[in-house]
Amino acid sequence: MQVLIVGGGLVGLSTALFLAHQGVRSVVIEKHAGTSLHPRARGFHSRTLELLRSTCAGAEVEQAGSVPAGTVVGELVAVTLAGPVHSWKTRTVSTQRTDVSPCPYVFLGQDRLDPILLEAARSQGVEVRFRHELTGFTQDARGVRATVLDRESGTVSTVEAAYLVGADGVRSPVREALGIALGGRGSFGHNISTLFDADLSLVQREAPLAFAVLTHPEVGGVIAATDVKDRWIHATRIDVSREMAEDFTEARWTERLRTVTGNADLKPTLHGTFVWEAAERVAERFGSGRVFLAGDAAHQMPPTGGFGANTGIHDAANLAWKLTAVLNGHADPALLESYDAERRPVAAATAAP
Ligand SMILES: Cc1cc2nc3c(=O)[nH]c(=O)nc-3n(C[C@H](O)[C@H](O)[C@H](O)COP(=O)(O)OP(=O)(O)OC[C@H]3O[C@@H](n4cnc5c(N)ncnc54)[C@H](O)[C@@H]3O)c2cc1C
Tell me, what's the pLDDT at 204? Predict the structure, then answer.
């Protein structure tokens, strides 16, 4: 195998896709049973779309996430969605800056993007093995040997590859194994989100709500629209030293959402809960030898501004063309050193305030 990719999130899948389009074979291993269920990233910038346009996924991503020109949305700061209102402003969503890019900005949840990337990668011959977990690896001058656990059957196998890409998220076992430290300002605290379906038309104003900051002393947090009609995210702070996701039962969320919306009869359909940390952490190196880090494994960014996933896909594109050039014998392996030199400063600058 030419490249082993650890992590089947959007960065691992994009890396595989960019490589496949340049004729490089890769295998993706992902410890979970499928792609992300939560729409964490929801906005993808023109530059990301330009890169994806070089693959067979580009047109489908543009189509799936396109926003009609002139769409107006509202942003609210209030005690609850029902008021009292501190501020309300509307803005026109600019989806196409033809002066800077031929590609639009797209509004598309990661839960819908990942399956598009997955199918595109598979259509190009990429093997994606779900429920397969990296448990260790070694490397030498000839390549990388990884041990992989099949979580369904319990069997352990060895995968040999010329290079390994750790696209294995914020906890990154690959980064840990390489002993690469993290810099940056660290944690800004934990949050808990629920994804829910509900008709919130009663609390809508003259434009559809895109985002609300709620200052209620007990149920404060944010409400964010998703790209699916009547599907919303509610996020609030959680003190993980005192509470766990399991403490947020369906009854507790429902009660909370009734207060948040000011609708005592609200019957939300809940689609699960997840805890996440807002943090700024950047790896001190983006790889070692034949092993590279990409995406959240290399840089964790607070969600403000929506840069984590976009930056990760840009890492994937940068690394893929360099691996291709080296594997095809068109460039000296020293070219791969430029991945860290080019991408780490970008990640640090993007993650910083
Ligand atoms: C609330 C929230 C909102 C966000 N909004 C935005 C936004 O609007 N725009 C934006 O650009 N970004 C946003 N982000 C950030 C974005 O979600 C991340 O940057 C992105 O998911 C990173 O993708 P990734 O593939 O690097 O990591 P992940 O999506 O975390 O994928 C890593 C994968 O590796 C797998 N894995 C880990 N260890 C192993 C192992 N040993 N073996 C096999 N597999 C393994 C994991 O199971 C996981 O599936 C947001 C994040 C949050 C939390």
Answer: 77
Query: Contact at 8 Å (CB) between 66 and 49?
Result: no
Domain ranges of the chain: 3-66+104-181+284-351, 188-278
8 A C-beta contact, residue 232 and residue 195: yes
66 alpha carbon – ligand 1 mean position (Å):
22
User: In whole angstroms, how far apart are CA 3 and each of 223, 238, 251, 326, 352?
Assistant: 40, 39, 46, 12, 31
The pLDDT value recorded for residue 233 is: 97
pLDDT in the model for residue 219: 92
pLDDT of residue 131: 98
Domain 188-278 grouped into CATH 3.40.50.1980: no
Calpha distance 333→191 (Å, rounded): 42
Identity of the amino acid at 51: L
The pTM of the whole model exceeds 0.90:
yes
Residue 86 CA, ligand 1 centroid: distance in Å: 33
Q: If you take atom 39 of ligand 1, which residue's CA is the nearest one?
A: 168
Place of tokens 């969503």: 93
How many Cα atoms are found within 13 Å in the side-chain-facing hemisphere of 167? 33
Torsion (CA) 316, 318, 319, 325 in degrees, nearest 10: 130
Per-residue pLDDT, 212: 96
List, for the chain, all residue ranges whose pLDDT scores fall below the cut of 50. Answer: none
CATH fold of 3-66+104-181+284-351, please? Answer: FAD/NAD(P)-binding domain (3.50.50)
Q: How far apart are CA 272 and CA 288, in angstroms?
A: 37
d(CA 112, ligand 1 centre) in Å: 14
Question: Going by CA atoms, what residue is nearest to atom 51 of ligand 1?
Answer: 40
CB 134 within 8 A of CB 8: no
What pLDDT score was predicted for residue 97? 80
Residue 206: predicted pLDDT? 86
DSSP 3: E
350/186 Cα distance (integer angstroms): 15
DSSP-derived 3-state class of residue 174: helix
pLDDT for the residue numbered 273: 94
